[in-house]
Amino acid sequence: MSGFVADVRKIFFSFLAVLMISVPVMGQQAIFTVEGQVSPQVNEDRSVTFRIHAPKAVKVEVRGDFLSSGKGGWGSAELTEGESGVWSWTSAPLESELYSYVFMVDGMQMLDPSNVFLMRDVRSLMNIFIVPGEKGDLYSVKDVRHGTVSKVWYDSPSLGMSRRMTVYTPAGYEDSGSRRYPVLYLLHGMGGDEDAWMTLGRATQILDNLIAVGKAEPMIVVMPNGNAALPSAPGEGPDGLYQPITRPEKSMEGSYETSFMEIVDYVDGHYRTVRKAEGRAVAGLSMGGFHSFHISKQYPGTFGYVGLFSATVPRKGGGDGVYSDFDRKIARQFSDGVELYYIAIGKDDFLYDENVWLRQYMDSHGYPYEYHESEGGHTWRNWRVYLSDFLQKLF
Amino acid sequence: MSGFVADVRKIFFSFLAVLMISVPVMGQQAIFTVEGQVSPQVNEDRSVTFRIHAPKAVKVEVRGDFLSSGKGGWGSAELTEGESGVWSWTSAPLESELYSYVFMVDGMQMLDPSNVFLMRDVRSLMNIFIVPGEKGDLYSVKDVRHGTVSKVWYDSPSLGMSRRMTVYTPAGYEDSGSRRYPVLYLLHGMGGDEDAWMTLGRATQILDNLIAVGKAEPMIVVMPNGNAALPSAPGEGPDGLYQPITRPEKSMEGSYETSFMEIVDYVDGHYRTVRKAEGRAVAGLSMGGFHSFHISKQYPGTFGYVGLFSATVPRKGGGDGVYSDFDRKIARQFSDGVELYYIAIGKDDFLYDENVWLRQYMDSHGYPYEYHESEGGHTWRNWRVYLSDFLQKLF
User: Fold this and answer.
1) Is the CB of residue B47 less than 8 Å from the CB of residue B95?
2) Nearby residues of A90 by Cβ (< 8 Å), 6 or more positions away
3) Is A378 on the interface with B (CB under 8 A)?
4) Distances from the Cα of B391 to the Cαs of A82, A125, A365, B246, in angstroms?
5) Is the pLDDT score of B294 beyond 70?
6) Is B238 in Cβ contact with A142 (below 8 Å)?
């Protein structure tokens, strides 16, 4: 290292050393904090050790989706106090997966102060960790070529606002000249937004990894905001830093589905897309499955592939606008031809019965579909698997 | 609302109602949690009320950058326990600003469970809130046209890896035909990454808002990762969910500065840029100011505008490679012509003396520069102001 750079580093790091004396440091010039614990620590045998410094606590628990209480729910385990007020607990070896957890300190829920990796699910923040292996690797950033993820605003005249969406373009898109790409429109559930599939759903990582090994076609993936009353995810729009709403207005009353071709037109107008049904898919989870169900039959000849993941589905026909002429629109959809109609749900999902009804409806009319039934319920753990499976069947 | 949709909503919301009985709910199918408190609450008079449910706590404090302890540091205030274990405290009216805070519950630092809005600064997570007004509005998403923010990976042959960067393209970029745009390369500090300016620096909002009112030229802003040993921000690269490093290797030893034209070439090759010095600026904070200092003199005729925000600067010439021939390179830089050389620092910044030296050096050689001295120290609060000021002087 050259002399003057060494000098600069010395000055700078001397300053850092001062900052690092107290834990955590949050003074005026303290841009660095130090946490002494390693937590969570994923061990060689795939067990996981949790640690937290809580010298005054009487009871410390970890709650997580890896601590099953019955049918895949969140359970808890008590940490044991060790030296210097550091509590710890080590799990049994875990299956490869992306897991979520929080700490409970004397009954108060808090995040792990040693782990900066979080996910937000509507109003809940949770720490995450990944146990490597099959699924964990699929959900991790690997040393492969990466797509570009963009936050894009489009104008929606019918909803009267500019709206934010997430667009994934696959690795190589920028350097592939006039090549056109198929498009998957991937829709979130109730309380979600245009960020949900990229954070909770790990869609970026799944897409990068499946495309890299040739298991999925290079495709554009468009993730709009399905709440017709909202322009964007909480905090990303002109309404400021409001608390996320679990039941936004105008989520399942037709406005969004009616406006959907504004999104398709924007995408076709700004990206090199395959502009026919064989090059378009629409899929979504829960409410997004409901949206996909209606959107796919509302616009004939537009979407060749449909994916309903734990979908909310109507039990009977009727309604206005996009919901009208239920039977006739589905009949036309299948008469025009559907490349793939994919239905997936978990055995314990609260929407299971609605999906039984849907399958019976499809069967009774002879509409072909592919059905995937998994363990578990209405969870992102299932939706990541459904997405990973669905992507390999597209285009 | 049509009949069948009403049915679906009824089923769905009945299920939600069950979920909402317990607080917070984190069961298997609990995709929604409920927090009873509103916190923080920004009041009409710009005071702010903090609340937290902590029935077993003995002492609850809020710590934040709005509670000045001396020269702008973080102070604390004690909350008072009210009914049902809800603690609260209301600040004095605050100046318009983006503020950060955490709670201390019986000495344990924790985030506000009622506020999902966070920022990460190296290893620290902090809640944020905005007090509206001049600065607060500038840092907020307003009802204006928005640029696109993309996470892009470029190949760096010299560093031997694919690397992630953030690219802002201004509103209208996609629809402006062959129009070319100037580019600001905006660099982060030690321990930061390609996300820092967009999160802590509110660069997206500042750019959108200044461009919307004509105070800044529409420009492309490129925010690379300045840690030559790392491909990306923590958790966004192949190294997985590791804890952020305050002192990454190869941050200030020349590799990054030497590789920098790979970034410029990528940007010029993939965006409609103005490919001359009058259309390029490089600016950065702290370590990023150090990088900007060296990069701007290393590549003659490349950067017409230079911004050093609380920069680390070398006190004497010498060194190898990009650091060599200090005097000669600066002489050439100013002989070629510099549109703007902008130096900004706070009176309490620990790098103040180095910047005094820099100004003396510039003065002694007759190199023109613009100097902005502010209150306060080495803080994002200052860097947001410097950026907002600098942007209005560009192109």
Assistant:
1) no
2) A43, A47, A48, A49, A50
3) yes
4) 53, 35, 62, 28
5) yes
6) yes
Q: What is the pLDDT of residues A327-358, one digit of tens each?
A: 999 999 999 999 999 999 999 999 999 999 99
Whether B8 sits inside 8 A of A141 (CB atoms) is no
- β-pairing, A97-105 vs A60-64, is antiparallel
User: Which 3-state string (H, E, C) describes chain A?
Assistant: CCHHHHHHHHHHHHHHHHHCCCCCCCCCCCCCCCCCCCCCEECCCCCEEEEEECCCCCCEEEEECCCCCCCCCCEEEECEECHHHEEEEECCCCCCEEEEEEEEECCEEECCCCCCCEEEECCEEEEEEEECCHHHHHCCCCCCCCCEEEEEEEEECCCCEEEEEEEEECCCHHHCCCCCECEEEEECCCCCCCCHHHHCCCHHHHHHHHHHCCCCCCCEEEECCCCCCCCCCCCCCCCCCCCCCCCCCCCCCCHHHHHHHHHHHHHHHHCCECCCHHHEEEEEECHHHHHHHHHHHHCCCCCCEEEEECCCCCCCCCCCHHHCCHHHHHHHHHHHCCCEEEEEEECCCCCHHHHHHHHHHHHHHCCCCEEEEECCCCCHHHHHHHHHHHHCCCC
Strands A86-90 and A80-81: what pairing?
Answer: antiparallel
Sign of CA dihedral B384, B266, A265, A252: negative
Query: Which residues 291-310 in chain A show a CB within 8 A of chain B?
Result: none
**A:107-136 residues touching chain B, CB 8 A cutoff:** 107-111, 113-118, 120-125, 128-130
Name residues whose C-beta falls within 8 Å of residue B214's C-beta, 6 or more positions apart in sequence: none
Look-up: residue for tokens 């630092």? Answer: B109
Task: Enter the ipTM.
Answer: 0.91
Whole-number Å distance between alpha carbons of A64 and A77: 9
Residue B68 is predicted with a pLDDT of 75
Judging contacts by C-beta atoms under 8 Å, the chain A residues touching residue B326 are 4
Residue (of A182, A195, A187, A138) closest to A308 by Cα position: A187
- Residue A230 tokens, joined: 């909202």
The pLDDT of residue A66 is above 80: yes
pLDDT digits (tens, 9 = 90+) for A223-254: 999 999 999 999 999 999 998 988 888 888 89
Using CA atoms, how far residue A134 sits from A95, A138, A206, A344, B193, in Å, is 9, 6, 12, 20, 29
Using the predicted structure, report yes or no on whether residue A16 has a pLDDT greater than 70.
no
Q: State the sign of the Cα–Cα–Cα–Cα dihedral B269, B274, B276, B280.
A: negative
The per-residue pLDDT for range B295-337, each reduced to its tens digit, is 999 999 999 999 999 999 876 666 789 999 989 999 999 999 9
Nearest CA in chain B to A35: B123
Percent of chain B with pLDDT over 70: 89
- In chain B, the residue whose alpha carbon lies closest to the alpha carbon of A290 is B8
CB-CB under 8 Å, B29 with A350: yes
Look up tokens 């190294």; give the residue: B239
pTM of the predicted model, to two decimals? 0.92
| 8 Å CB contact of A150 and B149 | yes
Is residue A379 predicted with pLDDT exceeding 80? yes
Interface touch B108/A57, C-beta < 8 Å:
yes
Q: Which tokens belong to B353? A: 């003396």
> Is B317 in contact with A4 (Cβ distance < 8 A)?
yes
Element (H, E) at B295: helix B287-298
User: Would the CA dihedral through A382, A387, A389, A390 be positive or negative?
Assistant: positive
User: Could you give the maximum distance between any two Cα atoms of chain A, in Å?
Assistant: 81
Q: What is the pLDDT of residue B64?
A: 95
3-state secondary structure of B122: coil
The distance from CA B226 to its chain's CA centroid, rounded to whole angstroms, is 14
Whether B23 and chain A come into contact, CB under 8 Å, resolves to no
